[in-house]
Amino acid sequence: MQFLRENGLVDTLKTLNQESGVTMNSLQDPAPLIDSIRQGKWDSVLGILSTIVLPPTALFDLHELLIVELVVQGDMDTARLVFRGSVCQTLRNQNERRYLKLENFISQASLGGSLGVESYFGVAAEERRGRVAQKVMQELRIAPNGRLLTLLGQAIQMQIQGDIVPADSVYDIFHGIVPEGSISAETVDVPITKCFKRRTLAAGAHVESAAFSANGAWLAVGLADGFIEILNPITGQRRLDLTYQQNESSMMVMEHAVIALSFNHDGSVLAVGTHGGEAAVWRTDTGSCISRFNLLHKDGVSVIKLARDGQTLLTAGYDGAIRLTGLKSGRIVKEFSSQHDSFVTDVAFNRDETLLYSCGADGKLNIFDMRRSSCIDTVLPFSTDRLSHGAIQKLIPCSATDNLIVCSRSGRALVVGPDGKTRQEFISKHNDVVTAAASPHQRYLYLVHEKGFISCIDTGSAIVTEIECTGENIGCVSHPLYNQLVSFSVDGSLRLWKPL
């Protein structure tokens, strides 16, 4: 309300007062009002009173003094106009005796009686003005200008100090995000080397899956006990500004371990897949469930993605099937004929979603035509690897081209074109890769090994650097906008990594 008044938005302020029932009785400087009362400048007093709200007792005293002085000055028309106003009508209902005294004073003056302020109040006009001014002063609240912007600035400063917002960056208050390209230190890909935050979950609990929203504002994790948490991407702690996360009874939860997560394009919706084959779609701001599917895949949902149109859900499972399901109808819209001899480990779209790629533990990379839902090619990019290590664990679409980074359990990674042909190859020193991630501009590729290593591969020079982390790794995800990696392991640890 102060902001509206300071910026001259009078009509908006009045509407807000009426609709909310909340009034404002604060002034930056009460001196002009108090001085005007003491000097009897009633036109100025009425002008200031129109911008604030005082309690009835103070208004009664003010209007009573105003009417008496107008009568004494001989301005009967104005006195009668003020007397017929809403304040005096309220006085009539609450204190009829006082109202009748004032009415009688006006009537006597109309008949030519010689009356004064002192004859009505029993004290001189200056003394009565002083008493009224003091009473009004007690009811006023003094507030400096610009409190809204000051409080917003203080809130952002507290978020920076608490590592909720990255320092030295532009911050979009409206969307609650750091806009892409606004972080000067992170616009260039830099390899992560340091674990700057570590969170350990309660005994017996661990993260099974994780996902960043496209704008980087949300980090979702799926737990082995079925709970889904939205975390602060900077601290790794549960976001308690989301009301539903303040109590476990109101949190997002599934019946089985959550092993697949995916946000829609703006982060407002989160899709969840479980080891029991069920899937659900949740609103991230309220924690309410939009859609739930009980058995999309009989052996568990290994991959889940929301299509760009926001109307369909793509899932793949341990049964080797890949399906496109309507969110509203719950019906299967398309089913991609399975070419896998084992479970599906990942799926990915090309940039315009005309092609769908799938990979599996059988080492196959399938390329589907989205419109026809038919397989147009199947390749075995790691056919020379031993069968146990030929499994493809992760697909990473290249942001600047239609190429695809294909990562195998053997520790090899290939850049594959839309025709299925290999363009480039990278090899790490270890096998047992469980998943992979890339830096924002894909200069660095991170292969996460089960036995406590992360291989950082410079895709420009092919140099491999090893990062050691304790525990048996389950997976990792990378921040879409700046250099940050989140890894999680069987021991319940959640680690946040960044450059030195």
Automatic annotation (TrEMBL):
Keywords: mRNA processing, mRNA splicing, WD repeat. Coiled coil: none annotated. SUPFAM superfamilies: WD40 repeat-like (SSF50978). The keyword Endoplasmic reticulum does not apply. WD repeats lie at residues 337-378. GO terms for biological process: mRNA splicing, via spliceosome. It comes from the Eukaryota. Residues 33-78 form the CTLH domain. Belongs to the WD repeat SMU1 family. This is CTLH domain-containing protein. It comes from Paramicrosporidium saccamoebae. The lineage of its organism: Eukaryota, Fungi, Fungi incertae sedis, Cryptomycota, Cryptomycota incertae sedis.
